[in-house]
Amino acid sequence: MPILEGKVAIVTGAARGTGAAIAERFIAEGAYVLLADVRDDLCKETAARLGANATFLHLDVTHEGDWSAVVEEANSERGSIDILVNNAGVLHQGPISNTSEADFRRLLEVNTLGPFLGLRAVVPTMKARGGGSVVNIGSIDSLAAMNGLTAYCASKFGLRGLAKAAALETGRDGIRVNTVCPAGGNPEMFEPWMGKVMGFLEETLAYNNDRGIPGSVPVESIVDAVVFLASDASRHVTGIDLPVDGGATAGCFIPGFNTL
Ligand SMILES: NC(=O)c1ccc[n+]([C@@H]2O[C@H](COP(=O)([O-])OP(=O)(O)OC[C@H]3O[C@@H](n4cnc5c(N)ncnc54)[C@H](O)[C@@H]3O)[C@@H](O)[C@H]2O)c1
Q1: Active site (annotated) includes residue 152
Q2: What crossing angle do the helices spanning 40-50 and 17-28 adopt, rounded to 10°?
Q3: CA torsion, points 165, 170, 175, 181, in degrees to nearest 10?
Q4: Rounded to whole angstroms, how far apart are CA atoms 73 and 9?
Q5: CA within 20 to 30 Å of 75's CA: 57, 85, 227, 248, which one?
Q6: 132 near 77, Cβ under 8 Å?
């Protein structure tokens, strides 16, 4: 039997990239998916491509009113919400001197406040039905910091704390809350900054090889981890950070030491 048979899932930021891939796999695994995003036209197209078990809903994760509407729609159309994937995210790259107060606030609002509002919206429904699974998409930058990513790291470290506290708070209601921490995703997220590192792209991307399994992590591997945490196969797993990072946060890979 498909691992998500009969489950109803909300996936935020599902217009493209990792969120669209999660939605597609969830459907292949038997789930009904509400694809939610601020990119209305693109998300509508994605939902249409995924067929009858996909619906588009407008959602700005920073607006509590949008969350209420999405939860109401899920309950009235499908009768439940079994899974929430807090995947929507935004990036800002630049040192502190190039990160404005508005940039910092925007990242905290979308990447940290958004998942908090998502929890607030779905927990009562999940509790009433005896449980559910919330999966947050963090980042390798939730676990170890990088220069030039102050606002992003702050927002993604915060997301882990939110998930752990929520896991403790809701465990007795059958609700699990976990965070997947990938070292990869949709390269389109970096596009606005690519021009600035073109002159030294090789050096900039060298960190991708300083890990047990070198290279950027493909989206399919992130999706595998999300499916596991969303499904009953992880029924006793809550409050964890699951790095999908080729061992990047395990420590340092030192090439010469492999030849000793
Ligand atoms: N791209 C990477 O290399 C990478 C690495 C690690 C983690 N991540 C994380 O993975 C997740 C998915 O990102 P992606 O790589 O697919 O990039 P992406 O830019 O393709 O996807 C992000 C999605 O979030 C949506 N979004 C942005 N603000 C929103 C809001 N206020 N409300 C609702 N939706 C909103 C966007 O429209 C977009 O569809 C994000 O949380 C990101 O931080 C990405």
Answers
A1: yes
A2: 20
A3: 0
A4: 12
A5: 227
A6: no
What pLDDT, in 10s, does the model give residues 167-219? Answer: 999 999 999 999 999 999 999 999 999 888 888 888 888 889 999 999 999 99
Nearest to 221 by CA among 183, 259, 171, 188: 183
The ligand 1 atom at the shortest distance from the C-alpha of residue 15 is 39
Q: Which residue type sits at 215?
A: G
Check: CB of residue 249 under 8 Å from CB of residue 140.
yes
Residue with tokens 């997301």: 159
8-189+218-238: in CATH 3.40.50.720: yes
Strand duo 175-182 + 241-244: pairing: parallel
Residue 16 CB–ligand 1 contact under 6 Å: yes
In angstroms, what CA-CA distances link 40 with 27, 32, 57, 75, 167? 20, 19, 8, 21, 31
Confidence of residue 123 (pLDDT cuts 50, 70, 90): very high
Is the CB of residue 117 below 6 angstroms from any atom belonging to ligand 1? no
